[in-house]
Amino acid sequence: MWLHPDDRPNEDAHSPACLGAARERQRDARWRRGRAVGSGVLVLALALLGIACDQDLDQVPVPDSGAINAGKPEVRARAILSPTKGNEASGTIDFEWEGDGTRIEASFEHMPPGVHAFHVHELGDCSAPDASSAGPHFAFYDTKIPPDRILGNLGELREGEDGVAHVSRAVPGARLAGARSILGKAVVVHAKGNDPDDPPDGGAGARIACGVIEAIH
Ligand SMILES: [Cu+2]
After folding, report:
1. How far is the CA of 109 from the centre of ligand 1 (A)?
2. pTM, rounded to two decimals
3. 173 with 154: CB under 8 angstroms?
4. Segment (H or E) for 165
5. Domains held by the chain: number
6. How far is the CA of 132 from the centre of ligand 1 (A)?
7. Looking at residue 201, which CATH number applies to its domain?
């Protein structure tokens, strides 16, 4: 399974080698306080050790994804989407931890024919008649995103009989906790499907439904 480099948990910074370097630095600080005279050579050597430690972190293997979600299995969320002006589509999306991301269960009605992309957007604000208040797409990761990636992508809804659409799928990388949590963000359903040649927003057209992702306690 591909894991983004940003998925590395902070625990990496506490590897034995780095803890050793930190202890050395603390010892050095005590020594300098005691002597009131710094040893340039020692300070330089410890600084180099610190740099080497940081470089080593870049080569730490990506951890098992279970560590990322550990302690948060109880987090669930729901978004209730209402139609934007001139549209009728509405529905509910349930979110639950799964693997390194989230499983979504989406049920919609009054969907127009065809395929409709839906994404997480930056702002939890669906107040504008066209849902423009939800802002641009929300990136599940904060750095090093491949340029061909459609951000915040939850997939597509296909209208079935009588305007009903259901989808159940895993969304790797979409988190319900942490610095890039999707809680409080908006989900927007679009008039068209994703165009993979049109990143980062997928060129999916008008916003036909919008709702905010809220935790369920
Ligand atoms: Cu979108």
Report:
1. 19
2. 0.67
3. no
4. strand 165-172
5. 2
6. 10
7. 2.60.40.200
Structural domain that includes position 30: 7-63
For tokens 């993979």, the residue is 196
Ligand 1 centroid to Cα of residue 152, in Å, is 8
**190 Cα: distance to centroid of ligand 1 (angstroms):** 6
Start-to-end Cα distance in the chain: 30
- pLDDT one digit per residue (tens) for the chain, 217 residues: 343 433 333 333 333 333 334 344 444 444 444 444 444 444 333 334 433 333 222 222 333 444 444 555 568 999 999 999 999 999 999 999 988 899 999 999 999 999 999 999 999 999 999 999 999 999 998 767 777 788 999 999 999 889 999 999 999 999 999 889 999 999 999 999 999 888 888 899 999 999 999 999 7
For residue 32, report the distance from its CA to the centre of ligand 1, in Å. 56
- For 18, the 3-state DSSP assignment is helix
Question: Do the domain assignments include residue 56?
Answer: yes
Distance CA 204, CA 198 (A): 9
Residues in the 5 Å CB sphere of ion ligand 1 = 119, 188
Q: How far is the CA of 59 from the centre of ligand 1 (A)?
A: 34
Distance 82 CA to ligand 1 centre (A): 15
